[in-house]
Amino acid sequence: MVFIKKYFLPLLIFIFYLSLYIHNLSRSVYAGDSGDFITTSILGGVAHPPGYPLFTFLGFLLTKLHFWPSPAFAVGLISAFSGAFTLSVFFLLCKKLSKNLIISFIITFILGFTYLFWFYSEIAEVFILNALFAISLIYLAIIINEKPTVKKFSLFLFILGLSLTNHQTIILLLPTLLIILLSPKILDLFFDHKNSNKLSNKIFKLKINNILYFISFFLLGLLIYIYVPIASHFNPIINWDNVKDIKSFLHLLLRQDYGTFNAGSFNAPNIYERIVILKTYLLYIFTQLTPPVIFISILGFFNLFFKSKKLFFAFIIGFLISGPIFITYAGFPLLGSFYLGIYERFFILSAILILLFSVYGLMLISKILSIILYKNLSINVCLCAFLIIPTMLAIYNYPKTNLSNIKVGNNLGYNFLSYLPKNSIVILTGDTELFNTWYIHFGLNFRPDIKVVNLNGIYQDRFLAPKLEAYRKQNPKKNQTEIFNDIIVSLNKKYPVFSYSIIKMNNKNISWIPYGLLYEMTDKQIDKSEFQKNVTYAWSQIYPSLNSLSDSKVIGNYALSDLPIIYAESMLATGNYFYEHYKDEVSSERWYKLALITDPTYAKTYQVIGVYDLGVKKDCQSASKFLQKSINLDPFDTTSYFILYDDQLACLKDKNAAELTAIKFSEVFKSNFSTAFRKIIKKYE
Description:
By secondary structure, the protein is mainly α. The chain has helices spanning about 1-25, 35-45, 55-65, 70-100, 100-115, 115-120, 125-145, 150-165, 175-180, 185, 210-220, 225-235, 245-255, 270-290, 290-305, 310-330, 335-345, 350-375, 375-385, 390-400, 410-415, 430-445, 465-475, 480-490, 530-540, 560, 565-580, 585-600, 605-615, 620-635, 640-650, 655-670, 675-685, and strands spanning about 190-195, 200-205, 425-430, 450-455, 495-500, 510-515, 520.
């Protein structure tokens, strides 16, 4: 009965949120890494570094139960269960801190309906399982600090080890956990000490058995990493880094493909760009948690400082490290919705720590109310008024988080493959483009005749790698680029070859022609009528699915909002080809307008139209309008500034407008516009 009484409310919270999250759960592949996680789960493969063995192993088990609506749904259940379980543990943590059920309910429901937490509880990603580990470790650390036992600390270390097999960013929480656990009582688990006659003389003796016990439990948690070499041994289709020995295992574990201490394979931003990234993060947190919650958290910040210095420093250091410091250090570039979609996921942990301050903010408000009202019943009634916050969050975020009927992720994978000739080779790059196609191709066994190649992993590709290695041995003096080019050219004699991006070739007779979402490799010249015929056929297989791109508020999510860009890019490429090769202004303009309709938020479309209006139509006013729109949408693209400046100065004869463009450039890039402008002119002379 005591157990039921203690855990009845957390169980209700679990059931409520699990039902909600499963109802909204995505039946389709999402964007970013989701396709890789789902496909490796289906195939029993190894995911991208550092392997994520816990998540993919759980996904592997779930996908073997064939009564789910889709494999994407099956793997997404990990996030749904993790989200519901996280909120149950979070409620217990809030209750322990506040000793107040109303406050605990309010803060728990705020977290449950916060957009990022809610959204990522409904897709196949690792971040909500990471949140579950984070909350569980904080809760356990506080319990252990009150009354340390060997069993509790062993459980803590086991969960810590297990958490490292899911996502390595859990290490950002280690300073917080160490501060909470730092006490003489904890040291008693590690040392026996006997006092001599003098106070300063203490004889310490290690408790070897306890220490071995603790190490064993920590390693037991890490043991799930054994899934990586076991899975790799069976040579699955997706087998990142081909782990066969200690060296390759460490290569995967330490993320050496990206750089061990780098967030990804992109150029590190400068100090000014990092400041903009930090501002973006703070603004995002402020708007997502809402101003009232931030205000309550600020109250809690001061209240906790006076109540418990230990927890104050633990939580504030955890917030700073997992939030502002990590986000600024990682330096995800603000180059569009895809990168924003990458780095918004890392806000979840710091948002949770902010909400822990909110607990103490409501405690302070409760204390103030107790002075005014004197009656506990009246105080609780007043506190219940704060339930309006999670209620409004639920109403506002529900349409943005209902993923149950969203199919744009699946559609993208189908659209890369559906219209291609039989036995084609498709070379893809980019997380969403590649991983979503993997899911459709390997996971759902669509178009098995096609060879899908990862451009960034050609030496791990089952189809291409043996050919590259054999050719390398025959031609040891050639570099990797030359070898790849030669192999692709030779394959093109037998198979149609397509690529998502234009690959620079050594052979000048080879060209890449837009064909739907891809480019077709050819050594022939095609006339306009044939090109028009190919384009019409390809897009007739693609275009109907574009209707679903703007049907839902869900597309407002950063990572999903990147999907229309993929279509718009291909339309722009088609329009450019019509003009550059056939001087067909009518067709090129039509494709530019289609790109604008497909994604009216894509800066490059406005830039291309601006350049076209300026260079071809000689419409200076229209060019200025489109170029200014491009800058507003993407203030970090230098090209639009230079073209707009030239348009305003030379074409519109508006010196004041040109000077304002130069000033805006200098403010954004913290560099002299005239110097940068001269460099770009010299480059093209």
